[in-house]
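Q: How would the structure tokens look for this protein?
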Amino acid sequence: MHLWPFDGSCDYDHLIGTGWTPSPLNEFIFKIESRCNLNCDYCYVYNLGDESWRTAPRFMTPDIARMAARRIRAHAETHGLTSVGISFHGGEPLLRGVAPVRRLYDSISQELGDLPAEYSIQTNGTLITEEVAADLAAMGLRVGVSLDGDEEGNKHRLDLGGKSSYARTVRGVQLLAQHEGLLQGALAVIDITADPARTYRAIADCGFRSVDFLFPHGTWELLPPGKTATDRTPSAPAPYAEWLLAIYEEWADDPDRMRVRIFDDIIHLLLGGQHSFETLGVSPARLAVVEADGGLELVDHVGVTYEGAAETGANVLTHRVDDLLRHPGVTSRQLGRSALADSCSDCALVDTCGGGLITHRFDQVNGFKNPTVYCSDLYTLIEVIGRDLEARIGVATGVLAAQ
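A: Here is the predicted structure in token form.
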């Protein structure tokens, strides 16, 4: 692969020579299980072309977890980090029950020692029992659950036998909610054929504190539903923005609203904030993935772009976390505006949009240096929220000036 960022333009030594400085990594996803009990049709791990799970170990061992934690601690000490984030993912991380999670948690926390860490786990919720919920609470984990709305909205989230997972997930959420502070956010993949207001209310009614509405993963080679190959400009149709704005109208007027991450992040950035989730903004991305075999990889959803896209060749058994900072896939996500296509870097809303998620920019001509397939959606969403913000609080966001 010789497309951007692997064309030499993101060479670490060259960038250092220009005065650029890498940002240390502070968030680590541990892929502790490589199999799942569901078969969601939009899943980037199993159904969008990434075949790496087939040869991956089925689960992470405590020895791998300890070595990963040792590398993370050394990285934190080198760069003066005061805390890190550790998140357990899969597949389904509770596929073999909660005991393996406890063993990995103990291994990691012992190795990190006095380095503060915030632990979380992302689950589909179907395997939660009273005992599992109590054990997760005892560990102090923050639990996120994947839920796309009501039963109809969850039609993509089927088990291996083709049956709905909805009732089992809701039951799991109810058990988690019995423990104060245990249940955190919902991850919801947007289905533009589902009713947005009903989707929002269904998630809120479950007791979540927040929801992260995710665009379905897609590229210019693998277009997501509702998008076409000509949607490369801000003026193109924006079905995902329309769907989200139907929720925003209700959300913005609700004094008791839960957090909707994409709305909060857009508002934060429009008001002059710098840091956000890597879907938005131009701040350096600081996340890495630890695979079950110890592989240090890029953010895993990039694997939908082409075979091996997430691989770096680094492994906690043989490499430092600092070695990962030299990889073009990491440097490219820390370069801000200079990592974007010309049409993006010249856009008036670039500091808020940030070019969108890097995976969604890929094609076989320019690599990752394209507008996102959700360009028009992000532009429309930011524009409308910016105008509303200026009208509500009288603080200039720059959106009106950009018109």
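The longest strand covers residues 117-123.

The radius of gyration is 21 Å.

Upvote if useful.
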